[in-house]
Design a protein that fits this description.
Elements: E1 10-13, H1 15-19, H2 29-40, E2 46-51, H3 64-70, E3 78-83, H4 86-93, E4 101-107, H5 110-117, H6 121-137, E5 141-147, H7 160-173, E6 177-182, H8 189-202, E7 207-212, H9 219-228, E8 233-236, H10 256-265, H11 274-288, H12 295-299
Parallel strand pairs: 1-2, 1-8, 2-3, 3-4, 4-5, 5-6, 6-7, 7-8
Helix pairs in contact: 2-3, 2-11, 6-7, 7-8, 8-9, 10-11
């Protein structure tokens, strides 16, 4: 870990995709659009707005085209979509002028990858190595996302060297950014710090992104460990939306407002208006009709006496 913390970071909001897809009931398209517009007004620089997966597999995101066509375009905000394969890219390119980045995913463990997309890691990588250059040829910035980078609920420990090896292939295929996901909240801060130390050495010139779930309450601690290791790119979900089918009881990503609040109190600039972000999470809570897990949503931002 480095002695000096970064002075600023980039945050990608993934709630409209990673969060909405895990909701038991389909959210009306108009409400999705309203919530995304509230998020884009906070100053957050990146938002993953939807995914071009098969509608019969994830019906919660079956309105990907409608959402992408309807959200407000705003200067300084980069919209991204999650793309599973070549067919997904083909669908997304029908609205090429509405988004800036394409995110491609696979898992770091064989069992999780088979459970998630019914493919081996090699099969997933081989297709992505064909699809990513196609996306780059369309002028899209590409991120490779590696799920279960820190632990797998089926296989246990995941070899960090193997994870970084996958990242190297994604980078060689054209990904300018690689995100490492703690999909079921199994990581710890010591593990995270060591991992990003090695990843930084083996992936020079690649933007490394940390994506933590808060399943066991260690999400923010892991985010801090990443920051201390020099990571300046993070993914999170407003209201702590999200989750994973396994293990039972999994909760969502770390809440964006919790992450932004922590960074702000540490003097690390995010460019995000925390008050507006809390308002967006409160609106999501109202739409969903249940209490969300975000701590800042419940307690409010820190207010120092002057």
């Amino acid at each position: 870990m480095s002695d000096a913390l970064p002075s600023s970071v980039l945050v990608r909001e993934v709630g409209p995709r990673d969060g909405f897809q895990n909701e038991p009931e389909v959210i009306p398209t108009a409400e999705k659009v309203r919530l995304i517009d509230l998020l884009s007004a906070t100053g957050i620089p990146r938002i993953e707005v939807t995914s071009f997966v098969r509608p019969d597999v994830i019906p919660q995101l079956s309105d990907a085209e409608e959402v992408l066509a309807s959200i407000e375009q705003r200067d300084g905000v980069s919209f991204s979509v999650l793309i599973p394969n070549g067919r997904g890219l083909e669908r997304a390119l029908g609205l090429r002028d509405r988004f800036d980045e394409a995110n491609f995913f696979l898992s770091a463990s064989e069992t999780h990858n088979r459970e998630n997309v019914n493919r081996t890691i090699e099969e997933s990588l081989s297709e992505l190595e064909q699809v990513i250059p196609e996306a780059r040829a369309e002028g899209l910035r590409c991120e490779g996302v590696i799920s279960t980078s820190f632990g797998c609920p089926y296989e246990g420990r995941v070899d960090p060297g193997a994870v970084i090896g996958i990242a190297e292939r994604l980078a060689a295929a054209g990904c300018e950014e690689v995100g490492f996901g703690d999909t079921t909240g199994m990581a710890n801060p010591a593990q995270v710090g060591a991992f990003f130390g090695e990843a930084t050495e083996r992936l020079p010139g690649v933007e490394l992104t940390a994506h933590f779930h808060n399943t066991r309450g260690q999400g923010l601690a892991n985010a801090y460990a990443s920051l201390a290791a020099g990571v300046t790119s993070f993914e999170s979900s407003f209201g702590e939306l999200g989750g994973c089918p396994v293990p039972p009881g999994s909760v969502g990503n770390i809440a964006t407002e919790d992450l932004v609040s922590m960074f702000s109190e540490m003097g690390v600039e995010t460019g995000v208006d925390l008050g507006r972000l809390v308002e967006a999470s409160a609106a999501a809570q109202e739409v969903l009709g249940r209490t969300l897990g975000s701590h800042v949503l419940k307690a409010g931002p820190v207010r120092w006496q002057t």
